[in-house]
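JOB MANIFEST
job_type = single_chain_structure
chain_count = 1
residues = 608
[input]
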Amino acid sequence: MPTRTWTWTFDKPPAALWPILADTARFNEALGVPTYQVEMVPQADGTVRRTARTRLGGRELVWDEQPYEWVEGRWFRHVRIFERGPFRRFGPALTLEPTEGGSRVTYSLSAEPMGLIGRLLLATGVLDRIGRSIERTLRAAAAVERPLGLTNLKPLPPRLAEGAEARLPGIVAALESGPYGHGLAQRLVDHVCGAQEVDLLHLRPLRLARLWDVPPQQVVELCLAAVPAGLLSMHWDLLCPRCRGASLQCEGLDQLPGDVHCPSCNVDFRRDFARNLELSFTPAAPIRPVLAGEYCLSGPMITPHVRVQQRLGPGETRQVEAGLPAGSYRLRTLEPGGSLDVELDDGPPPTVIAESGTIRLGPPSADGRLHLENREATLRGLVIEDRDWVADALTAHRAVTIQAFRDLFAGQAPRPGDEMGVESVTLLFSDLRGSTALYEALGDSAAFAAVREHFAFLTATIREQRGAVVKTIGDAVMAAFPQPPDALQAALRIQAGIAAFNEQLARTLPIRTGLVIKLGLHGGPAIVVRLNERLDYFGSTVNLAARVETASDGGDIVLSGRLAADPQVAPLLAGLPNRTEVVRLKGFDAPVTIRRILPADAAARPAA
Protein backbone atom coordinates (compact mmCIF):
# COMPACT_ATOMS: atom_id res chain seq x y z
CA MET A 1 0.00 0.00 0.00
CA PRO A 2 1.53 3.37 -0.99
CA THR A 3 2.81 5.25 2.07
CA ARG A 4 4.25 8.73 2.43
CA THR A 5 6.29 9.52 5.58
CA TRP A 6 7.50 12.83 7.01
CA THR A 7 9.74 13.62 9.98
CA TRP A 8 9.39 16.93 11.81
CA THR A 9 11.06 18.37 14.89
CA PHE A 10 9.48 20.52 17.59
CA ASP A 11 10.97 22.39 20.54
CA LYS A 12 8.38 21.04 23.00
CA PRO A 13 8.71 17.76 24.95
CA PRO A 14 6.43 14.81 24.09
CA ALA A 15 4.26 15.33 27.19
CA ALA A 16 3.38 18.84 25.99
CA LEU A 17 2.90 17.83 22.35
CA TRP A 18 0.75 14.73 22.81
CA PRO A 19 -2.50 16.52 23.81
CA ILE A 20 -2.01 18.72 20.73
CA LEU A 21 -1.01 16.16 18.12
CA ALA A 22 -3.48 13.51 19.27
CA ASP A 23 -6.48 15.89 19.13
CA THR A 24 -7.61 14.36 15.85
CA ALA A 25 -11.13 15.79 15.84
CA ARG A 26 -9.78 19.34 16.15
CA PHE A 27 -7.34 18.81 13.28
CA ASN A 28 -9.96 17.29 11.02
CA GLU A 29 -12.19 20.30 11.56
CA ALA A 30 -9.31 22.72 11.01
CA LEU A 31 -8.31 20.91 7.80
CA GLY A 32 -11.82 21.29 6.43
CA VAL A 33 -12.69 17.59 6.64
CA PRO A 34 -16.51 17.30 6.63
CA THR A 35 -18.37 15.73 9.53
CA TYR A 36 -19.71 12.23 9.01
CA GLN A 37 -22.62 10.17 10.26
CA VAL A 38 -22.07 6.78 11.87
CA GLU A 39 -24.40 3.79 11.96
CA MET A 40 -23.50 1.28 14.65
CA VAL A 41 -24.63 -2.31 14.06
CA PRO A 42 -24.01 -5.00 16.71
CA GLN A 43 -22.41 -8.18 15.39
CA ALA A 44 -22.93 -11.79 16.50
CA ASP A 45 -19.55 -11.92 18.26
CA GLY A 46 -20.36 -8.90 20.45
CA THR A 47 -18.37 -6.42 18.38
CA VAL A 48 -19.92 -3.37 16.74
CA ARG A 49 -19.57 -2.46 13.08
CA ARG A 50 -19.35 1.30 12.61
CA THR A 51 -20.39 2.33 9.10
CA ALA A 52 -19.60 5.99 8.38
CA ARG A 53 -20.94 8.17 5.56
CA THR A 54 -20.18 11.63 4.25
CA ARG A 55 -19.87 13.58 1.02
CA LEU A 56 -16.63 15.09 -0.24
CA GLY A 57 -16.18 16.82 -3.57
CA GLY A 58 -19.63 15.75 -4.70
CA ARG A 59 -18.89 12.05 -4.05
CA GLU A 60 -20.42 9.87 -1.36
CA LEU A 61 -17.87 8.13 0.83
CA VAL A 62 -18.81 5.04 2.84
CA TRP A 63 -16.34 3.24 5.06
CA ASP A 64 -15.88 0.94 8.03
CA GLU A 65 -14.63 3.17 10.87
CA GLN A 66 -12.03 1.15 12.76
CA PRO A 67 -11.07 2.15 16.32
CA TYR A 68 -7.78 3.97 16.79
CA GLU A 69 -4.83 2.27 18.43
CA TRP A 70 -2.42 4.21 20.63
CA VAL A 71 -0.05 4.40 23.55
CA GLU A 72 -0.41 7.71 25.34
CA GLY A 73 2.44 10.11 24.66
CA ARG A 74 4.12 7.75 22.18
CA TRP A 75 2.12 6.87 19.05
CA PHE A 76 -1.23 6.34 17.39
CA ARG A 77 -2.48 4.78 14.17
CA HIS A 78 -5.79 4.45 12.39
CA VAL A 79 -7.23 2.94 9.21
CA ARG A 80 -10.51 3.33 7.36
CA ILE A 81 -11.73 0.51 5.11
CA PHE A 82 -13.89 1.97 2.34
CA GLU A 83 -16.88 0.55 0.52
CA ARG A 84 -17.22 3.65 -1.67
CA GLY A 85 -14.56 6.19 -2.43
CA PRO A 86 -11.33 6.67 -4.31
CA PHE A 87 -9.36 4.54 -1.80
CA ARG A 88 -9.90 1.04 -0.47
CA ARG A 89 -7.86 1.73 2.68
CA PHE A 90 -6.65 5.04 4.09
CA GLY A 91 -5.15 6.06 7.41
CA PRO A 92 -2.50 7.99 9.36
CA ALA A 93 0.16 6.90 11.83
CA LEU A 94 2.10 9.15 14.20
CA THR A 95 5.12 8.44 16.40
CA LEU A 96 6.40 10.87 19.02
CA GLU A 97 9.97 10.55 20.34
CA PRO A 98 11.97 12.73 22.76
CA THR A 99 15.06 14.54 21.55
CA GLU A 100 17.63 16.64 23.37
CA GLY A 101 15.89 19.88 22.43
CA GLY A 102 12.27 18.73 22.25
CA SER A 103 10.56 16.07 20.15
CA ARG A 104 10.73 14.26 16.84
CA VAL A 105 7.45 13.52 15.11
CA THR A 106 7.20 10.88 12.40
CA TYR A 107 3.93 11.07 10.48
CA SER A 108 2.78 8.64 7.79
CA LEU A 109 -0.18 8.48 5.45
CA SER A 110 -1.09 5.21 3.73
CA ALA A 111 -3.60 4.89 0.90
CA GLU A 112 -4.63 1.92 -1.24
CA PRO A 113 -6.48 3.04 -4.40
CA MET A 114 -9.84 1.47 -5.20
CA GLY A 115 -10.09 2.46 -8.86
CA LEU A 116 -8.91 4.84 -11.53
CA ILE A 117 -9.70 8.00 -9.57
CA GLY A 118 -7.73 6.75 -6.59
CA ARG A 119 -4.72 5.91 -8.75
CA LEU A 120 -4.88 9.35 -10.41
CA LEU A 121 -5.02 11.07 -7.02
CA LEU A 122 -1.95 9.20 -5.85
CA ALA A 123 -0.11 9.86 -9.10
CA THR A 124 -0.77 13.60 -8.85
CA GLY A 125 0.64 13.84 -5.30
CA VAL A 126 -2.49 13.94 -3.14
CA LEU A 127 -0.60 12.51 -0.16
CA ASP A 128 2.04 15.22 -0.40
CA ARG A 129 -0.62 17.93 -0.48
CA ILE A 130 -2.39 16.45 2.52
CA GLY A 131 0.93 16.11 4.35
CA ARG A 132 1.82 19.78 3.79
CA SER A 133 -1.58 20.84 5.13
CA ILE A 134 -1.18 18.63 8.17
CA GLU A 135 2.31 19.95 8.88
CA ARG A 136 1.12 23.56 8.70
CA THR A 137 -1.74 22.82 11.08
CA LEU A 138 0.44 20.83 13.48
CA ARG A 139 3.04 23.57 13.66
CA ALA A 140 0.39 26.24 14.12
CA ALA A 141 -1.15 24.26 16.97
CA ALA A 142 2.21 23.53 18.62
CA ALA A 143 3.11 27.23 18.51
CA VAL A 144 -0.01 28.28 20.37
CA GLU A 145 0.73 29.09 24.00
CA ARG A 146 -2.89 29.10 25.16
CA PRO A 147 -4.79 25.80 25.63
CA LEU A 148 -6.22 24.53 22.36
CA GLY A 149 -9.75 24.75 23.69
CA LEU A 150 -9.35 28.53 23.58
CA THR A 151 -7.78 28.68 20.12
CA ASN A 152 -9.47 28.37 16.74
CA LEU A 153 -7.23 26.55 14.26
CA LYS A 154 -9.71 26.98 11.41
CA PRO A 155 -8.57 29.43 8.72
CA LEU A 156 -12.03 31.03 8.48
CA PRO A 157 -14.13 32.41 11.36
CA PRO A 158 -17.25 30.46 12.35
CA ARG A 159 -20.54 31.47 10.78
CA LEU A 160 -23.17 32.86 13.15
CA ALA A 161 -26.91 32.64 12.61
CA GLU A 162 -28.60 35.53 10.86
CA GLY A 163 -29.19 38.41 13.26
CA ALA A 164 -27.13 36.81 16.04
CA GLU A 165 -24.44 39.47 16.09
CA ALA A 166 -27.00 42.21 16.78
CA ARG A 167 -28.44 40.25 19.74
CA LEU A 168 -25.16 39.49 21.47
CA PRO A 169 -24.62 42.88 23.23
CA GLY A 170 -28.05 42.60 24.81
CA ILE A 171 -27.27 39.08 26.01
CA VAL A 172 -24.02 40.24 27.61
CA ALA A 173 -25.81 43.16 29.31
CA ALA A 174 -28.59 40.89 30.60
CA LEU A 175 -26.13 38.37 32.03
CA GLU A 176 -23.98 40.99 33.74
CA SER A 177 -27.00 42.74 35.23
CA GLY A 178 -27.90 39.57 37.14
CA PRO A 179 -26.10 37.73 39.92
CA TYR A 180 -24.43 35.16 37.68
CA GLY A 181 -22.43 37.20 35.17
CA HIS A 182 -19.24 37.52 37.27
CA GLY A 183 -17.71 39.77 34.60
CA LEU A 184 -17.35 36.73 32.33
CA ALA A 185 -20.33 37.15 29.99
CA GLN A 186 -18.37 38.73 27.14
CA ARG A 187 -15.75 36.03 27.50
CA LEU A 188 -18.40 33.33 27.11
CA VAL A 189 -19.90 35.09 24.09
CA ASP A 190 -16.45 35.28 22.48
CA HIS A 191 -15.97 31.56 23.12
CA VAL A 192 -19.34 30.61 21.65
CA CYS A 193 -18.73 32.77 18.59
CA GLY A 194 -15.07 31.96 18.02
CA ALA A 195 -14.29 28.45 19.25
CA GLN A 196 -14.07 25.41 17.03
CA GLU A 197 -17.14 23.22 16.90
CA VAL A 198 -15.34 20.38 18.70
CA ASP A 199 -15.26 22.64 21.77
CA LEU A 200 -18.97 23.50 21.54
CA LEU A 201 -20.70 20.21 20.70
CA HIS A 202 -20.32 19.21 24.35
CA LEU A 203 -19.47 22.41 26.24
CA ARG A 204 -18.39 21.55 29.77
CA PRO A 205 -18.29 24.54 32.15
CA LEU A 206 -15.81 22.85 34.50
CA ARG A 207 -13.36 22.40 31.62
CA LEU A 208 -13.93 25.99 30.52
CA ALA A 209 -13.23 27.20 34.07
CA ARG A 210 -9.97 25.23 34.08
CA LEU A 211 -8.93 26.73 30.74
CA TRP A 212 -9.89 30.24 31.88
CA ASP A 213 -8.31 29.72 35.31
CA VAL A 214 -11.34 31.09 37.15
CA PRO A 215 -13.49 29.60 39.96
CA PRO A 216 -15.58 26.70 38.58
CA GLN A 217 -18.81 27.82 40.26
CA GLN A 218 -18.70 31.16 38.45
CA VAL A 219 -18.56 29.49 35.04
CA VAL A 220 -21.26 26.96 35.96
CA GLU A 221 -23.57 29.76 37.12
CA LEU A 222 -22.79 31.78 33.99
CA CYS A 223 -23.60 28.86 31.66
CA LEU A 224 -26.83 28.15 33.52
CA ALA A 225 -27.89 31.81 33.25
CA ALA A 226 -26.93 31.83 29.55
CA VAL A 227 -29.73 29.35 28.79
CA PRO A 228 -32.72 31.62 29.57
CA ALA A 229 -30.68 34.51 28.13
CA GLY A 230 -30.70 32.73 24.76
CA LEU A 231 -26.97 32.13 24.35
CA LEU A 232 -26.80 28.42 25.23
CA SER A 233 -28.96 25.33 25.24
CA MET A 234 -28.52 22.72 27.97
CA HIS A 235 -29.03 18.98 27.91
CA TRP A 236 -28.56 15.93 30.08
CA ASP A 237 -26.12 13.30 28.78
CA LEU A 238 -26.11 9.70 29.94
CA LEU A 239 -22.47 8.62 29.80
CA CYS A 240 -21.56 5.01 29.10
CA PRO A 241 -19.46 3.65 32.00
CA ARG A 242 -17.18 1.85 29.53
CA CYS A 243 -16.40 4.32 26.73
CA ARG A 244 -17.70 7.37 28.71
CA GLY A 245 -19.34 8.78 25.62
CA ALA A 246 -22.85 10.25 25.62
CA SER A 247 -25.12 7.33 24.75
CA LEU A 248 -28.33 9.34 25.13
CA GLN A 249 -29.18 13.03 25.35
CA CYS A 250 -32.38 14.75 26.49
CA GLU A 251 -33.48 18.19 27.63
CA GLY A 252 -35.21 17.39 30.95
CA LEU A 253 -34.71 15.12 33.93
CA ASP A 254 -38.27 13.93 33.45
CA GLN A 255 -37.31 12.48 30.03
CA LEU A 256 -34.55 10.19 31.28
CA PRO A 257 -34.96 6.42 31.01
CA GLY A 258 -33.66 4.16 33.74
CA ASP A 259 -31.89 1.73 31.41
CA VAL A 260 -29.71 2.82 28.51
CA HIS A 261 -27.93 1.05 25.65
CA CYS A 262 -24.54 2.21 24.41
CA PRO A 263 -24.42 1.45 20.67
CA SER A 264 -20.67 2.01 20.55
CA CYS A 265 -19.89 -0.61 23.22
CA ASN A 266 -23.01 -2.74 22.63
CA VAL A 267 -23.77 -2.85 26.36
CA ASP A 268 -26.71 -1.89 28.56
CA PHE A 269 -26.24 0.18 31.70
CA ARG A 270 -28.25 2.05 34.31
CA ARG A 271 -28.15 5.74 34.99
CA ASP A 272 -26.29 6.96 38.04
CA PHE A 273 -27.29 10.44 39.24
CA ALA A 274 -23.86 11.14 40.72
CA ARG A 275 -21.59 9.42 38.18
CA ASN A 276 -22.86 9.04 34.63
CA LEU A 277 -25.57 11.67 34.26
CA GLU A 278 -23.98 14.92 33.10
CA LEU A 279 -25.29 18.42 32.43
CA SER A 280 -23.61 20.03 29.42
CA PHE A 281 -24.30 22.83 26.95
CA THR A 282 -24.24 23.77 23.25
CA PRO A 283 -24.70 27.15 21.54
CA ALA A 284 -28.34 28.08 21.05
CA ALA A 285 -29.30 27.55 17.40
CA PRO A 286 -30.42 31.19 16.88
CA ILE A 287 -26.86 32.26 17.84
CA ARG A 288 -24.59 29.65 16.28
CA PRO A 289 -25.90 26.42 14.76
CA VAL A 290 -23.36 23.60 14.96
CA LEU A 291 -23.13 20.75 12.49
CA ALA A 292 -24.39 17.30 13.39
CA GLY A 293 -22.02 14.37 13.03
CA GLU A 294 -18.47 13.45 13.92
CA TYR A 295 -15.14 15.02 13.06
CA CYS A 296 -13.44 12.01 14.61
CA LEU A 297 -15.23 9.19 16.38
CA SER A 298 -12.49 7.58 18.44
CA GLY A 299 -9.21 9.50 18.44
CA PRO A 300 -6.98 9.47 21.54
CA MET A 301 -8.19 12.81 22.89
CA ILE A 302 -11.84 11.82 22.49
CA THR A 303 -11.16 9.52 25.46
CA PRO A 304 -8.12 11.08 27.19
CA HIS A 305 -8.53 8.82 30.21
CA VAL A 306 -7.45 5.85 28.06
CA ARG A 307 -3.69 5.37 28.34
CA VAL A 308 -3.35 2.35 26.05
CA GLN A 309 -5.71 1.01 23.38
CA GLN A 310 -4.63 -1.93 21.20
CA ARG A 311 -6.50 -4.26 18.84
CA LEU A 312 -5.30 -7.87 18.77
CA GLY A 313 -6.37 -10.61 16.41
CA PRO A 314 -7.37 -14.10 17.61
CA GLY A 315 -4.44 -15.67 19.47
CA GLU A 316 -2.24 -12.61 18.95
CA THR A 317 0.33 -11.44 21.50
CA ARG A 318 1.99 -8.02 21.48
CA GLN A 319 4.61 -6.14 23.46
CA VAL A 320 4.48 -2.34 23.62
CA GLU A 321 6.53 0.33 25.34
CA ALA A 322 3.96 2.03 27.57
CA GLY A 323 5.77 3.52 30.57
CA LEU A 324 2.63 3.51 32.74
CA PRO A 325 3.26 5.36 36.02
CA ALA A 326 2.22 3.76 39.30
CA GLY A 327 -1.46 4.26 40.03
CA SER A 328 -5.01 2.95 39.75
CA TYR A 329 -6.15 1.57 36.40
CA ARG A 330 -9.04 -0.29 34.85
CA LEU A 331 -8.40 -3.03 32.28
CA ARG A 332 -11.17 -3.93 29.85
CA THR A 333 -11.98 -4.74 26.26
CA LEU A 334 -13.60 -2.47 23.70
CA GLU A 335 -16.19 -5.20 23.24
CA PRO A 336 -18.73 -6.31 25.90
CA GLY A 337 -17.06 -8.25 28.65
CA GLY A 338 -15.57 -8.04 32.09
CA SER A 339 -13.21 -5.44 33.50
CA LEU A 340 -10.51 -5.53 36.13
CA ASP A 341 -9.42 -2.76 38.51
CA VAL A 342 -5.73 -2.93 39.38
CA GLU A 343 -3.07 -1.00 41.27
CA LEU A 344 0.20 -0.82 39.34
CA ASP A 345 3.45 -0.09 41.14
CA ASP A 346 6.83 1.02 39.81
CA GLY A 347 7.87 -2.55 39.03
CA PRO A 348 7.65 -4.39 35.70
CA PRO A 349 4.20 -4.17 34.11
CA PRO A 350 2.07 -7.32 34.18
CA THR A 351 0.83 -9.35 31.24
CA VAL A 352 -2.78 -8.44 30.34
CA ILE A 353 -4.79 -11.40 29.06
CA ALA A 354 -8.23 -11.44 27.40
CA GLU A 355 -9.72 -14.92 27.79
CA SER A 356 -13.22 -16.40 28.04
CA GLY A 357 -14.92 -13.00 28.14
CA THR A 358 -12.82 -11.75 31.04
CA ILE A 359 -9.63 -9.79 31.67
CA ARG A 360 -6.94 -11.20 33.94
CA LEU A 361 -3.31 -10.57 34.77
CA GLY A 362 -0.38 -12.79 33.92
CA PRO A 363 3.17 -12.68 35.31
CA PRO A 364 5.19 -9.46 35.18
CA SER A 365 7.13 -8.93 31.98
CA ALA A 366 10.85 -9.66 31.98
CA ASP A 367 11.75 -6.95 29.47
CA GLY A 368 9.91 -3.98 31.05
CA ARG A 369 7.41 -3.73 28.20
CA LEU A 370 3.67 -4.16 28.50
CA HIS A 371 2.65 -7.63 27.30
CA LEU A 372 -0.83 -8.12 25.83
CA GLU A 373 -2.45 -11.43 24.91
CA ASN A 374 -5.74 -12.16 23.15
CA ARG A 375 -6.72 -15.76 23.84
CA GLU A 376 -10.18 -15.29 22.36
CA ALA A 377 -11.31 -16.71 19.02
CA THR A 378 -12.16 -13.23 17.69
CA LEU A 379 -10.45 -9.85 17.46
CA ARG A 380 -10.38 -7.94 20.74
CA GLY A 381 -9.53 -4.37 21.66
CA LEU A 382 -7.60 -4.15 24.95
CA VAL A 383 -7.91 -0.93 26.94
CA ILE A 384 -5.96 0.40 29.94
CA GLU A 385 -7.55 3.51 31.41
CA ASP A 386 -7.54 5.74 34.46
CA ARG A 387 -10.20 4.75 36.97
CA ASP A 388 -11.29 8.29 37.75
CA TRP A 389 -14.53 9.35 36.11
CA VAL A 390 -14.54 12.23 33.65
CA ALA A 391 -12.95 15.00 35.72
CA ASP A 392 -14.69 17.82 33.87
CA ALA A 393 -18.18 16.32 33.97
CA LEU A 394 -20.80 18.45 35.75
CA THR A 395 -22.76 15.54 37.20
CA ALA A 396 -26.46 15.85 37.89
CA HIS A 397 -25.79 15.48 41.61
CA ARG A 398 -23.43 18.45 41.56
CA ALA A 399 -25.66 20.51 39.26
CA VAL A 400 -28.80 20.26 41.38
CA THR A 401 -26.88 21.32 44.50
CA ILE A 402 -25.98 24.65 42.86
CA GLN A 403 -28.27 27.49 43.89
CA ALA A 404 -28.31 29.00 40.40
CA PHE A 405 -29.75 25.75 39.02
CA ARG A 406 -32.49 25.80 41.65
CA ASP A 407 -33.24 29.46 40.96
CA LEU A 408 -33.30 29.22 37.17
CA PHE A 409 -34.69 25.72 36.57
CA ALA A 410 -37.06 25.07 39.44
CA GLY A 411 -39.16 22.74 37.29
CA GLN A 412 -36.26 20.42 36.43
CA ALA A 413 -37.06 17.23 38.35
CA PRO A 414 -37.65 13.53 37.69
CA ARG A 415 -41.08 12.57 36.43
CA PRO A 416 -43.58 11.58 39.16
CA GLY A 417 -42.81 8.15 40.53
CA ASP A 418 -39.29 8.07 39.09
CA GLU A 419 -36.60 7.81 41.75
CA MET A 420 -32.88 8.46 41.27
CA GLY A 421 -30.41 7.43 43.94
CA VAL A 422 -27.27 9.24 45.06
CA GLU A 423 -24.60 7.55 47.13
CA SER A 424 -23.92 10.60 49.26
CA VAL A 425 -25.39 14.05 49.79
CA THR A 426 -24.79 16.32 52.77
CA LEU A 427 -27.89 18.02 54.12
CA LEU A 428 -28.19 21.11 56.31
CA PHE A 429 -31.37 21.87 58.23
CA SER A 430 -31.92 25.18 60.01
CA ASP A 431 -34.63 26.63 62.23
CA LEU A 432 -35.19 29.75 64.32
CA ARG A 433 -35.14 29.42 68.10
CA GLY A 434 -38.14 31.10 69.70
CA SER A 435 -39.91 32.00 66.45
CA THR A 436 -43.32 31.98 68.18
CA ALA A 437 -42.14 34.65 70.64
CA LEU A 438 -40.75 36.62 67.71
CA TYR A 439 -44.16 36.78 66.02
CA GLU A 440 -45.84 37.74 69.29
CA ALA A 441 -43.32 40.51 69.97
CA LEU A 442 -43.19 42.04 66.47
CA GLY A 443 -46.53 41.16 64.96
CA ASP A 444 -47.03 39.04 61.89
CA SER A 445 -45.91 41.59 59.30
CA ALA A 446 -42.64 42.63 60.94
CA ALA A 447 -41.81 39.08 62.01
CA PHE A 448 -42.41 37.78 58.49
CA ALA A 449 -40.11 40.49 57.14
CA ALA A 450 -37.39 39.39 59.57
CA VAL A 451 -37.83 35.75 58.58
CA ARG A 452 -37.70 36.68 54.89
CA GLU A 453 -34.44 38.59 55.38
CA HIS A 454 -32.95 35.68 57.28
CA PHE A 455 -33.85 33.37 54.38
CA ALA A 456 -31.93 35.68 52.04
CA PHE A 457 -28.94 35.64 54.40
CA LEU A 458 -28.95 31.84 54.60
CA THR A 459 -29.40 31.37 50.86
CA ALA A 460 -26.52 33.71 50.00
CA THR A 461 -24.18 31.96 52.45
CA ILE A 462 -25.20 28.50 51.27
CA ARG A 463 -24.69 29.50 47.63
CA GLU A 464 -21.22 30.89 48.36
CA GLN A 465 -20.27 27.52 49.82
CA ARG A 466 -21.41 25.61 46.69
CA GLY A 467 -24.72 24.44 48.10
CA ALA A 468 -28.37 25.04 47.27
CA VAL A 469 -31.56 25.58 49.24
CA VAL A 470 -33.89 22.68 48.50
CA LYS A 471 -36.92 24.20 50.23
CA THR A 472 -38.14 26.26 53.13
CA ILE A 473 -40.48 24.78 55.73
CA GLY A 474 -42.08 27.47 57.88
CA ASP A 475 -39.09 29.26 59.40
CA ALA A 476 -36.71 26.42 58.52
CA VAL A 477 -34.41 25.75 55.56
CA MET A 478 -33.29 22.48 53.99
CA ALA A 479 -30.12 22.76 51.91
CA ALA A 480 -28.00 20.22 50.01
CA PHE A 481 -24.26 20.09 49.32
CA PRO A 482 -22.32 17.66 47.12
CA GLN A 483 -19.32 17.71 49.50
CA PRO A 484 -19.40 17.50 53.34
CA PRO A 485 -16.76 20.22 54.01
CA ASP A 486 -18.82 22.76 52.08
CA ALA A 487 -21.84 22.08 54.29
CA LEU A 488 -19.81 22.53 57.48
CA GLN A 489 -18.18 25.71 56.19
CA ALA A 490 -21.61 27.11 55.33
CA ALA A 491 -22.84 26.35 58.85
CA LEU A 492 -19.79 28.00 60.40
CA ARG A 493 -20.21 31.10 58.24
CA ILE A 494 -23.90 31.33 59.15
CA GLN A 495 -23.21 31.32 62.87
CA ALA A 496 -20.22 33.63 62.45
CA GLY A 497 -22.27 36.12 60.45
CA ILE A 498 -25.52 36.12 62.42
CA ALA A 499 -24.42 38.92 64.77
CA ALA A 500 -23.72 41.32 61.90
CA PHE A 501 -26.98 40.27 60.27
CA ASN A 502 -28.90 41.03 63.46
CA GLU A 503 -27.29 44.48 63.71
CA GLN A 504 -28.38 45.29 60.17
CA LEU A 505 -31.86 43.89 60.81
CA ALA A 506 -32.30 46.10 63.88
CA ARG A 507 -31.83 49.20 61.72
CA THR A 508 -35.03 48.48 59.78
CA LEU A 509 -37.21 46.50 62.19
CA PRO A 510 -38.22 47.09 65.87
CA ILE A 511 -36.41 43.94 66.99
CA ARG A 512 -34.84 44.04 70.46
CA THR A 513 -33.25 40.57 70.56
CA GLY A 514 -31.51 39.14 67.54
CA LEU A 515 -32.45 35.96 65.71
CA VAL A 516 -30.88 32.76 66.98
CA ILE A 517 -30.36 30.00 64.42
CA LYS A 518 -30.33 26.28 65.07
CA LEU A 519 -28.32 24.14 62.64
CA GLY A 520 -28.02 20.40 62.07
CA LEU A 521 -25.98 18.49 59.47
CA HIS A 522 -25.92 14.88 58.31
CA GLY A 523 -24.92 13.09 55.11
CA GLY A 524 -25.41 9.78 53.38
CA PRO A 525 -27.32 8.10 50.56
CA ALA A 526 -30.65 9.54 49.45
CA ILE A 527 -33.32 9.28 46.78
CA VAL A 528 -33.89 12.19 44.39
CA VAL A 529 -37.61 12.61 43.70
CA ARG A 530 -40.18 15.08 42.37
CA LEU A 531 -42.17 16.60 45.23
CA ASN A 532 -44.53 19.55 44.78
CA GLU A 533 -43.20 19.93 41.21
CA ARG A 534 -39.65 20.45 42.44
CA LEU A 535 -36.59 18.29 42.92
CA ASP A 536 -36.35 17.02 46.48
CA TYR A 537 -34.58 14.37 48.56
CA PHE A 538 -36.17 11.48 50.41
CA GLY A 539 -35.03 8.68 52.71
CA SER A 540 -33.52 7.88 56.10
CA THR A 541 -30.63 10.30 55.59
CA VAL A 542 -33.12 13.16 55.21
CA ASN A 543 -35.07 12.03 58.28
CA LEU A 544 -31.99 11.88 60.49
CA ALA A 545 -30.66 15.22 59.22
CA ALA A 546 -33.94 16.89 60.14
CA ARG A 547 -33.87 15.30 63.62
CA VAL A 548 -30.24 16.24 64.24
CA GLU A 549 -31.23 19.89 63.88
CA THR A 550 -33.74 19.50 66.73
CA ALA A 551 -30.80 18.72 69.05
CA SER A 552 -29.37 22.19 68.44
CA ASP A 553 -29.75 24.73 71.26
CA GLY A 554 -29.28 27.68 68.91
CA GLY A 555 -26.03 29.43 68.09
CA ASP A 556 -24.30 26.05 67.95
CA ILE A 557 -23.93 23.50 65.12
CA VAL A 558 -24.87 19.85 65.53
CA LEU A 559 -23.38 17.17 63.29
CA SER A 560 -24.27 13.51 63.22
CA GLY A 561 -21.50 11.24 64.42
CA ARG A 562 -21.16 9.79 60.93
CA LEU A 563 -20.63 13.19 59.34
CA ALA A 564 -18.19 14.27 62.07
CA ALA A 565 -16.07 11.18 61.31
CA ASP A 566 -15.90 11.94 57.58
CA PRO A 567 -12.22 12.19 56.53
CA GLN A 568 -12.82 15.62 55.02
CA VAL A 569 -14.74 16.94 58.04
CA ALA A 570 -12.72 15.58 60.96
CA PRO A 571 -9.67 17.84 60.35
CA LEU A 572 -11.94 20.90 60.31
CA LEU A 573 -13.36 19.99 63.71
CA ALA A 574 -9.93 19.66 65.30
CA GLY A 575 -9.54 23.40 65.84
CA LEU A 576 -13.12 24.09 66.95
CA PRO A 577 -14.65 23.92 70.45
CA ASN A 578 -16.80 20.81 70.26
CA ARG A 579 -17.89 17.80 72.21
CA THR A 580 -19.43 14.42 71.56
CA GLU A 581 -22.87 13.66 73.00
CA VAL A 582 -25.34 10.80 72.86
CA VAL A 583 -28.95 11.99 72.53
CA ARG A 584 -32.43 10.66 71.99
CA LEU A 585 -34.10 11.85 68.78
CA LYS A 586 -37.77 11.58 67.99
CA GLY A 587 -38.53 8.71 65.62
CA PHE A 588 -35.31 6.79 66.38
CA ASP A 589 -35.40 3.95 68.88
CA ALA A 590 -31.67 3.83 69.59
CA PRO A 591 -29.66 6.74 71.00
CA VAL A 592 -27.80 8.78 68.38
CA THR A 593 -24.23 10.05 68.67
CA ILE A 594 -23.78 13.70 67.70
CA ARG A 595 -20.93 16.21 67.68
CA ARG A 596 -21.84 19.69 68.91
CA ILE A 597 -19.75 22.68 67.80
CA LEU A 598 -20.18 25.16 70.64
CA PRO A 599 -20.57 28.92 70.36
CA ALA A 600 -17.37 30.72 71.34
CA ASP A 601 -19.00 32.12 74.47
CA ALA A 602 -20.32 28.73 75.56
CA ALA A 603 -17.32 26.49 74.95
CA ALA A 604 -17.08 25.65 78.63
CA ARG A 605 -20.79 24.97 79.08
CA PRO A 606 -21.35 21.42 80.48
CA ALA A 607 -23.26 18.91 78.40
CA ALA A 608 -26.92 18.53 79.19
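[summary]
The chain has a mean pLDDT of 91.
Residues 59 and 236 are 36 Å apart (CA to CA).
exit_status = 0
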